[in-house]
Design brief:
The complex is a heterodimer of chains A (257) and B (324). By secondary structure, chain A is mostly helical. Chain A is built from twelve helices and no strands. Chain B folds into two domains: 7-226, 3-Layer(aba) Sandwich (Rossmann fold); 231-296, Alpha-Beta Plaits, CATH 3.30.70. Chain B has helices spanning 45-52, 74-79, 96-106, 113-124, 140-151, 170-184, 197-203, 221-228, 243-250, 275-285, 300-308, 318-323; strands at 7-16, 19-29, 34-38, 60-65, 68-69, 81-85, 158-162, 189-194, 206-211, 214-219, 231-237, 259-261, 264-269, 290-296. The model of chain B is unreliable at 314-324 (pLDDT under 50). In chain B, helix 5 (140-151) runs parallel beside helix 6. Chain B is an alpha/beta fold. Classes of the chains: A mainly alpha (257), B alpha/beta (324). The interface between A and B is medium-sized, with 25 and 31 residues.
């Protein structure tokens, strides 16, 4: 019982630390606000006219996609933060304290949930201003938002692992943006999959991002979901099931460089 | 003497692939004392501290800290230690106060205590004025003091300081030394690693010299310095022709026969306190004018040359980092 109480309080202490960092590092704050807004505006007004999305306005098609992509990268602050903690020796300090060992990771990933909520508010606000409409029930919208937050949480663990495995914050950055970023594009997030070359279509179709984006679209736009929501949920839970233990294992072994 | 040692290791070994960081290290640190682990980069000092603070597991041998085994009772050990070191492991994006309060909460201090303890420590380390500033605006010396304060939040009986003054300027170094001395006077046991003989000399009651993963000498600073030959006065005379007269005048205060070298008079002495005044007085009495006088202390290089027959290897900061 005491262990659980300490586990929760340690997690909250470290989540607060993770969140305090954001307003104090202007580049991170920009990452959470200006960048997603710019992306929405660029896609809608620059590419929007050229991309045909039969049945929907492009803004309605785009918003679920771009929100999934942003939420996936919402946990990136965890990769940067952990890589930085390693570089600065803070990991040694935390590991020498009588705190719950995994609290640094649970604290950071919990902090990401808060920033992701903030990010969702910003993006939906901008979307609604430029013409996005929810066309589903309140229950479906709430389910969609919860799914998005769970997706964000799952990727926080992926980024925790990347941060603990990178030689520096710069390396974590390079890994995130040269590998994961393109993968989010080979999906249904920005253009309909059937417009891609035929060899690319099966890849995009089976990309878990496509499942997640399709699930968000179904829940926000009220179109038939098929099995997309369940497949997306399974993918998300599988990512947590793999990367949470992997990060915890890595954290126990890692030492300051 | 108190019964249980604060730190005790037996046959501690740790290798990283083919690099043997520790090759059987035995240490014994009495409670309430300062123990210096002296050695060059890559000697194994940091590896030893990491094992003692439960960050690493030894390949072989055993270690007890505050009476608890570092492998079997790691959680207990962590409740009784503080760690500060060359990294100044404090969060740059928090204020000094927030850093210490966070550490207090993670030590599970009682409600209200983390904040009170943070204020108290900031005051005793001269950081009260900077308490609510972000640490990234702190100077190097301020960061180290905050790092040391963070290690003290839970008043740990055993404190590990891994090269606490590496990279600091002289003034910050002396401030930190004063802080460490004040702690020891309150009964904290300190295990300190350093590459600087002066630092071990100033702070430690006993010193173990470590080289290539082995303890090659152990004793009080005086005992080690006597092995190396102690300190030396170097006196340059206005008239170099009177060198022999100076040697004769100073023979009685020297620990060994004074000699002439490069036009200067070299006078080996054991105790530096008072010797300069004494030497000046004797030369003055003999009517010999002094151009310049200085004291040279044995360096870590001298200790190593003397103990191992080879100079301390300066492989740069990277050596130990790579051996991890």
């Amino acid at each position: 019982m005491t262990a659980l109480r300490y586990g929760i309080s340690d997690t909250l202490v470290l989540a607060k630390r993770s969140l305090l960092r954001i307003p104090r590092q202007p580049d991170l704050l920009v990452g959470f606000t200006v960048q997603p807004i710019l992306f929405i505006l660029l896609f809608v007004y620059v590419f929007g006219g050229a991309i045909r999305t039969p049945g929907y306005d492009y803004v309605d098609f785009l918003m679920p996609g771009i929100i999934v992509q942003s939420i996936v990268f919402g946990g990136f602050v965890t990769a940067l933060g952990l890589a930085d903690d390693l570089k600065k020796g803070l990991i040694d300090r935390f590991r020498s304290l009588p705190m719950t060992r995994s609290a640094l990771l649970t604290g950071r990933t919990l902090g990401d949930v808060v920033t992701n909520i903030f990010q969702l508010i910003v993006m939906f606000t901008v979307g609604l201003i430029i013409g996005f409409n929810f066309s589903s029930s309140v229950g479906e919208v709430v389910a969609g938002i919860l799914l998005l937050l769970l997706i964000g949480y799952a990727f926080s663990w992926v980024f925790a692992f990347i941060g603990l495995s990178s030689s520096s914050p710069e390396a974590a950055n390079a890994f995130g943006f040269t590998i994961l970023f393109p993968v989010t594009f080979v999906s249904s997030a920005f253009v309909p999959v059937h417009t891609m070359p035929s060899w690319l279509q099966p890849i995009a179709e089976h990309n878990p991002f496509t499942k997640m984006v399709n699930a968000a679209r179904a829940l926000f736009l009220g179109i038939p979901a098929g099995n997309n929501v369940w497949v997306a949920l399974l993918w998300t839970l599988a990512i947590i099931a793999v990367f949470a233990p992997l990060s915890a294992w890595r954290y126990r072994r890692v030492v300051t460089r | 003497m108190q019964s249980a040692p604060a730190v005790e290791t037996t046959g501690l070994r740790k290798s990283y692939g083919s690099v043997h960081a520790l090759r059987g290290v035995d240490l014994h640190v009495d409670p309430g004392s300062v123990f210096g682990l002296l050695g060059p980069n890559g000697a194994g000092k940091t590896t030893a501290v990491r094992i003692l603070t439960t960050l690493l597991q030894p390949d072989d041998g055993s270690a007890r800290v505050a009476g608890f085994d570092v492998v079997r009772d790691a959680a207990k050990v962590r409740q009784h230690i503080g760690l500060a070191g060359q990294y100044a492991a404090v969060d740059e994006n928090l204020t000094g106060f927030e850093n210490l309060e966070m550490v207090g909460r993670l030590y599970h201090l009682r409600r209200g205590q983390p904040g009170a303890r943070a204020r108290e420590l900031l005051a005793s380390f001269g950081l009260s004025d900077a308490a609510d500033r972000l640490v990234r605006t702190y100077s190097g010396g301020m960061r180290r003091r905050l790092d040391l304060a963070a290690a003290l939040v839970a008043r740990p009986p055993v404190l590990f300081l891994d090269e606490p003054t590496t990279g600091l300027d002289i003034r910050s170094r002396i401030e930190l030394w004063d802080a460490i001395e004040a702690l020891v006077s309150e009964g904290t046991t300190v295990l300190l690693t350093t590459q600087v003989l002066d630092e071990a000399d100033r702070l430690a009651a006993r010193i173990a010299v470590i080289d290539q993963g082995l303890v090659i000498a152990e004793g009080t600073p005086g005992e080690l310095k006597r092995q190396v030959g102690g300190e030396r006065l170097d006196i340059h005379l206005c008239n170099e022709g009177r060198g022999e007269d100076a040697v004769a005048a100073l023979a009685s205060i020297a620990s060994d026969q004074p000699f002439l070298e490069d036009g200067s008079v070299r006078v080996p002495v054991v105790e530096r306190r008072g010797t300069i005044a004494d030497a000046v007085r004797r030369l003055d009495d003999a009517g010999i004018a002094i151009d310049d006088i200085s004291v040279s202390s044995p360096t870590l290089d001298d200790v190593f040359l003397n103990l191992t027959g080879h100079a301390a290897e300066h492989e740069g900061e990277e050596a130990e980092a790579q051996s991890r």
